[in-house]
Design a protein that fits this description.
This protein is of the alpha/beta class. The protein is 33% helix and 31% strand.
């Protein structure tokens, strides 16, 4: 398969993950990066192996050599620059959350369809073989029928200048972290949603610092996710966990973080005892870039589908409405 030339809009911190992933992806050429700070853009180009640098996003999108674009910009810029890229005929990998609402996300996918290109939301962890292993445990009946899922993602508090703490940029724990919990749940429960309840605590700037949501499904299954920016600032502290309960047992996270690579594990509890599953996991960011590269070459279709992202956006819409965001 011929390699795909990728461009990146912006010099966001997440490139410490996705930039490395691009270098690891077999069929990705880190071709061009655009930023508004010349020194930083050149620094990132050197660090992650990009061949070209641009000082405007429009210039990069006008480069006919660029086939796919990764957009790690602040949440409030996702719509504008995803639409601009799609209209230039570029395939797009847009960071989560793909949009501030389900309605906006729908418009983005419509433009992708109109221009004959792929749009995929960047949920790197969904590409992990760890997630596939969990899905297979459930499919094979290891814990019977799933009845309840509980998951949490807690990170550090941020300086109020951080985009995660600014409401006009669609910051807050639900947008930044809650989308992980909701998407984890939806990976394993495909039933129709009946109701969503949520509570939150807010900063003085009306950004949610802690949110807890409960999802009720028409089938009687339930799920909950907790997200928060609570640990001391400027630390690497974080807390990622999950538990999937079934009619015959449950699965609990062991060595686990969203987007972790390397050694990971989970534990399966049944009447027969405890079974610990350990595995070595590849770089998730490289896996997602490789997956969309295959889509560009007609070898695959997006693994994180439009339908999945729209469903997830509807959950977050309901959570934000419930907490009065």
């Amino acid at each position: 398969m011929e390699k795909v030339k990728w461009g990146v809009l912006g010099t966001a911190g997440i490139l410490s993950c996705t930039g490395v992933g691009m270098q690891k992806a077999e069929h990705c050429i880190p071709y061009a990066i655009a930023g508004r700070d010349e020194a930083k853009t050149k620094e990132y180009a050197k660090k992650y192996g990009f061949e070209k640098t641009y000082l405007s996003y429009d210039e990069l999108l006008s480069d006919d050599e660029v086939e796919a674009v990764y957009i790690p910009l602040p949440n409030n810029l996702h719509y504008e620059w995803t639409i601009a890229a799609l209209k230039k005929g570029k395939h797009v990998l847009c960071e989560k959350p793909i949009a501030e609402s389900c309605e906006v996300a729908e418009k983005m996918y419509e433009v992708a369809k109109e221009n004959g290109v792929y749009l995929m939301e960047a949920f790197a962890y969904q590409h992990s073989p760890y997630m596939e292993a969990l899905a297979n445990e459930i499919k094979n009946g290891a814990i019977g029928d799933v009845t309840f899922i509980d998951t949490a993602f807690i990170t550090t508090f941020y300086d109020m200048s951080n985009i995660r703490m600014r409401k006009e940029m669609f910051g807050g724990s639900a947008y930044d972290l809650g989308v992980y919990g909701s998407s984890f749940i939806l990976r394993f429960i495909e039933d129709e949603i009946k109701d969503i309840k949520a509570v939150a605590t807010f900063s003085d700037e009306k950004v949610d610092l802690y949110t807890h949501a409960v999802i009720e499904f028409e089938s009687g299954k339930t799920a909950a996710f907790t997200c928060g920016m609570l640990y001391e600032p400027e630390t690497n502290n974080r807390h990622d966990r999950f538990e999937i309960m079934g009619t015959k047992g449950y699965i609990r996270s062991g060595i686990y973080q969203y987007n972790l690579s390397g050694k990971m594990s989970y534990e399966v509890y049944t009447d027969e005892g405890v079974r610990v599953v350990e595995m070595d996991v590849e770089d998730n960011y490289g896996l997602e870039v490789e997956q969309l590269s295959k889509c560009v070459r007609g070898e695959a279709v997006p693994y994180v589908t439009k339908e999945f992202s729209i469903r997830n956006a509807k959950v977050i819409d309901a959570v934000l409405e419930a907490i009065g965001y």
